[in-house]
Amino acid sequence: MIEIKHSGIENTKNSSIAYEQIYHERGISHLDSFYLMLIELLNPEPGKLLIDVSCGEGRLACLANHWNVQSVAIDFVLYPLITSKRQNNEISWVNADAEKIPIRSNSVDYVFNIGSIEHYLNPENGIREIARILKPEGKACILLPNLFGLLGNIKYVAQKGEVFYDNQPIQRYATLNTWKSLLTENNLIITKVIGFNEVQLPKTFQDFNYYLHRPQKFVRLLISRLIPLNLSNHFIFLCKPKS
Questions:
Q1: Which of 145, 184, 202, 224 is 20 to 30 A off residue 176, Cα-Cα?
Q2: 105 confidence band (pLDDT: 50, 70, 90)
Q3: String of b and e for 20-36 (b: at least 16 CB within 10 Å)?
Q4: Looking at 3-17, 36-50, 182-196, 221-235, which range is the least confident one?
Q5: What confidence tens digit (pLDDT) does each residue in 201-218 have?
Q6: What is the distance between the alpha carbons of residues 215 and 212, in angstroms, rounded to a whole number?
């Protein structure tokens, strides 16, 4: 595993302040099709409790309403929560640290953590919290970045001589087996791993139009089907808690 870290990021408060600036300047978001693809992987049942941990702007939790679940969006950065709540008050918005989730143990049916654990001060704490809040039969969907992504870091290193860095306060990359070990050593059981290369079939008209004007995305989608799991840009881990 490699770690890139801003100076002065020694506690949760400093990290939160840095993210406040990021959300004010540019935000962090993805196409709806990305979030819909992830939700479909867990296929939540109506009436169940779904938590998006480190939700950012909370789009995944909002889209999960189509499954008629009880959605909760949690993030330690207040600004995107306030902004998003103004647009959608049908879900619960919680300002809290993902390493100390204010939810009782064994109470959640579905947990999503999408591209966030690698940015935590203590990733182990965040993973253990996911395992703690899940019901024994609960499911988690966790996305993490690959150190050796063929269309990601390998391509970027070939061009720039350095791993890709998006200027978040802390960034980590690791191999498939390193992430597996981190998850399983912190009370999760991995049931499936899926490679993700930052493209997916469009699931909305708006996203189809986005792809239509970017034909290279369709080419990347075709190429990504041929890439071995170990060389995917990201890994999607489907997990359940250890007994």
A1: 202
A2: very high
A3: eebbeeeeeebbbbbbb
A4: 3-17
A5: 999 999 999 999 999 988
A6: 6
What pLDDT is stored for residue 85 in this prediction?
87
Please, which residues bridge with residue 170 across strands? 5
Is 90 exceeded by the pLDDT of residue 10?
Answer: no
Distances (CA, A) of 175 to 35, 66, 81, 154, 231: 23, 34, 32, 13, 9
| Token representation of residue 75 | 């993030």
28 and 49 in contact (C-beta within 8 Å)? no
Q: Are 199 and 217 in contact (CB under 8 A)?
A: yes
The sign of the dihedral angle between the CA atoms of 238, 240, 241, 243 is negative
- Ramachandran quadrant class, 167 (left: phi over 0; alpha: psi -120 to 50; beta: rest): left
The dihedral of CA 237, 111, 138, 87: what is its sign?
negative
Element (H, E) at 139: strand 134-145
Q: Tens of pLDDT along 50-76?
A: 999 999 999 999 999 999 999 999 999
215 three-state secondary structure: helix
Q: 89: which residues sit within 8 A by CB, 6+ positions away?
A: none
Find the radius of gyration of the CA atoms of the chain. 17
Distance of CA 139 to the CA centre of its chain: 14
